[in-house]
Each structure stands twice: as C-alpha cells, then as structure tokens.
Specification:
By secondary structure, the chain is mainly alpha-helical. It folds into two domains: 238 residues, no CATH class; 98 residues, 3-Layer(aba) Sandwich (abc type-2 transporter like fold), CATH 3.40.1710.10. It is built from 13 helices and four strands. It has a four-stranded mixed beta sheet with strand order 2-1-3-4, with helices on both faces. The radius of gyration is 28 Å and the shape is elongated.
C-alpha cells in the first residue's frame, strides 16, 4: 500500500509542475462542455422557407402566416425564372411552398386544391421534420376553415414525461459529461504512462521491486483523484450554465461516476502501456476513445439505429453505460432500478482494462 501511495504522490507532483497538462485537465473539458452544450441541437429551428403565392388573396395570406407562426420557419425572398426551385438548388432555402392561382376559389367551392411543397432532402431527418411541420400547419388551417371534421372518435391526450419543457440541454449536457470524462482522464493517464518510456525512467521501474499492479494502481489513483476534480468542475459549471440539476437520489450518480472514471483512467493506462510515444497515445485516445464515445454510446444517435454487426461494439464501450447513468440522474431520477445493469458493466469493464494492462506490463518487467 505504501508503494501505491508513493507512486500516487509522485504522479500528482509531476502533474502540478506541468502547466500544459493542467490546462489539458481543467480548461479543455470546460471548453468542450460549452461547445458541445451550445452547438449540438437535435431540434430543427429557423428553417429558411420560400413561399410563392400565385393566389394573393386573404385566404392564401392567412395560410402563409400560419406557416411562419410556428416559429420553426423563417421567410426567405428569392427572385428569378423559377425562384422556389432556384432557392433550394442554391441552398438559400430548405423548403418551398407554391400556392396555385385557384387556391381560394377551390377552397370556397369545396374542391380539392393542390399546394406544391418542395423540400431539400439532403438531410433526411431535417426533411422529415419539415414535412411533418408543414403537414400539421395545413391540417390546422383546414380545420380552422371547416374543411376537416371538428370531432374525432379518438382524442389523444399527450403528456411529455420527464422533460415537459422539451429542453434539449437535459438530453445533451448529461451526454456531454460522458464524452468529456471519458476523453480527458484517459488522455492524461495515457500521456503519463508513455512519458515514462520516453524519458527512460520506465527502465528503473521495470528493474525495481514494485509490481505491475502497484505501478498501475499508484498511477491510477493519482489520475482518478485528478479526474474527480475534473468531474466536480465540469458538473458544477454545467449546472450553472445550462441549469441542469440532479433529480432523485444522487447515490447512483456518485457510484457510476467513480466506476466510470476508473474505467477511463485504466483505459488510458492500457493505451500508454501499448504506445511507444505520446503521439501514438494521443491518436489512440482520439480514434478509439473519442470517436466511439461520441458515435457509439447513444450520446447523439439511438443505439438501435446502428446496423449489425457494428451494433455489437457499444456493448464494450463504457461511455454507453455511463450516459445512461447521467441521464437517469439528471432527467429521469429512477435510481438503482433503472441503472443497476449499467453499474455492473462499468465495474466489469474497469477490471478488464486493469487486468489487460497488468499482464502487458508484467511481461515487460525484468524477472526478479
């Protein structure tokens, strides 16, 4: 135990003397939180819309006003031989509505009238949002003018559970915690481990009586303490900036965070043991750690949308389980009943990373 603590104290002393590492540990996580928290938006807003009105009556104008009253579209003006198509082709607008000359006459006569809708489907998800929004506005307009039945056999009563205000920060920010706390602790641990090789001090360690387990636990304890400090700073600032607070019992968040930080640190040590220089360690964290935690953890994209066999990869990605824990702690508040399996998987993956690192490091050490 004394060797582990001595190794931990040495690592923290070296960490404090390196200003670049201090910035990497505390400044970059905060900047990442701000960028991801404000930049990532899953709900489409301020969609540029071009309307070409050939009818020019009060009825057609009322329909246009309904479109813009949703606050989802912003008007765009464009001129030319075919202004609506040109606006979409040139990226000026994402959608165009063409109202025919007989629009009001057909409606007043009770006849069907065709309103042409052009949608830029380059972004398929955005195209679905635009189509659904225009369809809802059209149905509301028709019902308002008595063109649809006012009564229905089935009347759905909708209630948004957990997030009635539809705040995207409640979904994005807890996910960002998982990405940040996976990248930076593992990066610091990997750099610290590989730095021993570059400076040649690892040879002294190999020749000493300290075991591989003691070395890894000593370094791991040091960077676990640093990761805890990172976590407190990031979550406190996240709560102040984005107004995202803990709901329910915080015990699952505390346990899950400690397990996840251990996973992150031991993963970094594993990469450090396998890497020959700092560039390789940084690239390993970037490619293996950052990309998987961003794209294969459920942070942005639902995991059930990932096709087989790539859908098997999230099962061994700790960020996937920790994001479930944070979203439960900050949004749902169910507690152990909802995240017990995630906590078990975090513990299992942490032991796996540690054991693999220990075996690799043991083979490198000189026999005593």
């Amino acid at each position: 135990m004394k060797r582990i603590i001595a190794q931990c104290v040495k690592e923290i002393a070296q960490f404090r003397r390196d200003r670049l590492t201090l910035a990497l540990a505390f400044l970059l996580p905060f900047l990442t939180l701000i960028i991801f928290g404000f930049a990532i938006r899953l709900e489409s807003k301020d969609i540029p819309l071009v309307v070409q009105d050939f009818n020019r009556t009060n009825l057609s104008q009322s329909y246009i006003e309904r479109l813009y009253a949703t606050n989802q579209f912003i008007p765009k003006e464009w001129s030319g031989i075919n202004p609506t198509r040109d606006a979409i082709d040139k990226g000026i607008a994402k959608a165009a509505v063409i109202i025919p000359p007989e629009f009001s006459r057909d409606i007043q006569a009770g006849r069907n009238t065709n309103v042409q809708i052009l949608i830029d489907a380059t972004d398929v998800n955005n195209a679905r949002v635009i189509r659904g929004s225009i369809q809802r506005v059209t149905n509301f307009f028709m019902q308002e003018h008595g063109l649809l039945p006012t009564t229905s056999t089935i009347t759905p009563r909708l209630r948004l559970w957990f997030n009635p205000g539809r705040l995207e920060s409640l979904y994005i920010v807890p996910g960002v915690y998982g990405v940040i706390l996976w990248i930076f602790p593992s990066l610091l641990a990997a750099i610290a481990m590989v730095r021993e090789k570059e400076k040649g001090t690892v040879l002294q360690i190999y020749a000493s009586s300290i075991s591989a387990s003691e070395l890894l636990l000593g370094k791991g304890l040091a960077y676990l303490l640093i990761a805890i400090a990172e976590t407190l700073i990031v979550m406190i600032l996240g709560s102040l900036v984005f107004q995202v607070g803990i709901v329910g019992n915080p015990i699952t968040l505390i346990i899950g965070t400690l397990l996840f930080l251990m996973d992150s640190v031991f993963f970094g040590l594993l990469l450090g043991v396998r890497s020959s220089n700092q560039n390789a360690a940084v690239q390993g964290v970037s490619l293996i750690g950052f990309i998987t935690s961003l794209l294969l953890s459920g942070f942005i994209y639902p995991l059930n949308n990932i096709p087989f066999p790539l859908s098997l990869a999230p099962n061994i990605i700790p960020a996937r389980y920790y994001i479930d824990v944070t979203r439960d702690a900050f949004v749902r508040g169910i507690g152990f009943a909802g995240v017990w399996f995630d906590l078990i998987m975090l513990a299992v993956l942490g032991l796996f990373f540690f054991n693999v690192s220990r075996r690799i490091l043991s083979r490198m050490q000189l026999p005593s």
